[in-house]
Amino acid sequence: MEISKNKVVTLSYVLKLNDSQGEIVETVTKDQPFVHMFGTGNLLESFEQKLNGKKTGELFEFALTCNEAYGNVNVNAVVNLPISTFIVDGKVDYNLLQIGNEIPMQNQDGQPLYGLVVSIDNQTVCMDFNHPLAGKNLHFDGEVINVREATPEELSHGHAHGVGGHAH
User: Fold this and answer.
1) Maximum C-alpha span of the chain
2) What pTM was computed for the model?
3) Kind and range of the H or E element at 45?
4) Which among 15, 49, 87, 155 is most buried, taking Cβ atoms within 10 Å?
5) What are the structural domains of the chain?
6) Which residues make beta-bridge pairs with 72?
7) Which residues contact 4 (CB under 8 A, 6 or more apart)?
8) What are the distances in angstroms from CA 9 to CA 27, 36, 73, 107, 150?
9) H or E element, residue 152
10) How many whole angstroms separate alpha carbon 142 and alpha carbon 119?
C-alpha cells in the first residue's frame, strides 16, 4: 500500500542535523516506531511531501532546510518574563528554573507551548520559545514499515490509534 492522505503510516528513521554525517538528534526504531495518520496537518508539510507515495518496505532519505522544517530562529520568541510568573504557592520554584530546563507554559490564548530557560536574575527569567530545531537543517534516513487504511474511529478522531498511535 502507498502513503497518501488519511493512511496510517508506520516509520522508523534516524534524524540528523544538516546531512547524513550530522549529529544524531533522534532515532526511531522498528521496535518503537513512529505511527501517525498521514495528511492531517499534524506533521511538517514538507516532511509529508517527501513521504507521499512511498510504499511499505521502501527506504527513504531526504533533507529539509530550516525553512522547510521549523523556520529560522525568531528573536522575538526570546522574551524576559517577570520572575513572579513562576511563583507557585507563594514562592519561586528554583528547582524548575534551571538554565537549560524546558518548561511547559501557555500563551495568552491558553495554547500550550514550551520555553527553554536561558538565564535568570532576581527580577526576570529569559525564556526561548523557539522550537528546539528552529534554524536547523534536518536529514532523515529511514524505512516505511507499514501503510494501512485508517479505521472509521481514527478518521473521526484525526489520528492513529493502537500500538505506536494515540491511546484513549
Assistant:
1) 58
2) 0.82
3) helix 45-51
4) 15
5) 7-70+133-157 (3.10.50.40), 75-128 (2.40.10.330)
6) none
7) 38, 39, 52, 53
8) 17, 6, 30, 32, 9
9) helix 152-157
10) 37
